[in-house]
Predict the structure.
Amino acid sequence: MLEKEKRTCLFEVTFPDNTKGIVYLINGVIQKAMYESLNGENAVRAIVAKGKARFWFKPLTERMIESLVTTYQS
C-alpha cells in the first residue's frame, strides 16, 4: 500500500519488550531499516517476524530521513 501511494515516511514500531525498530520509505520504497543490531532487509524481516507491536507512520521529507538515520545510529 505504501509503495502504491508512493509515501515518504518513517515507520516506527515498539514491541512489548520495549525494543524498537524503524523503517524509512522514500516514495513507497524501503530505503533504510534498523532493528536492534540488524540493518536493511534483515531488520525488516525481524520486525515482521516479531509479531505484536505498536506502530506509527510519520510523514517525512528525504532530508529529515537522513538526519534521523544519523541520530538513530549514534
Notes: Residues 2-73 form one domain.
